[in-house]
Amino acid sequence: MIPELIKDHEDKMKKAIEATRHEFSQIRTGRANPGILEHVRVEAYGSQLPLSQVAAVTVPEPRQLMITPFDRNMLAAIEKAIQKSDINITPNNDGLNIRLNIPTLNEQRRKEMIKQVHQKAEVGRVSIRTVRQDAIKKLQVAKKASDISENEEKRASEQIQKLVDKYIAEVDQLNKAKEAEMLEV
Known about the structure:
The protein is α+β, with helices and mostly antiparallel strands. It has 4 helices and 6 strands; from the N terminus they run H-E-E-E-E-H-E-E-H-H.
């Protein structure tokens, strides 16, 4: 029972790390990253589709994204969707592709973005701690039901705490890496 509980909760912590990594990929730095377009939805074929389903996004240069639609008739709809999104980059339509030139970040914008990174890192830490609380509650319930002894509960709690420390350190590492990436000029 205890090994399964620990494994299950470790998997949940890994998912929290992946969610944090995903959130970090959507924060715009001075570099071109297709992740910033992930939430853009295009009006296509009578429904709202993710940009990735109607076009290929490539990075031809460090500060440029190129969007090549699978169907050329979608160029105007893609351009409109990008303009309506919150990425604040003007698309350049050349008739075949749409190019997004990523502007360099000024100092004030960098500081705002770093604050966002710290907030998203804290959300990751909180979700890991929430998983810990859930695991400890389950251990306490098992102890009250006499399914496990007090020593087993204590050992399992210590193992869970070690996992929490490990994954929070990983969130901190991701946070530092993203912050360093944002400070690059």
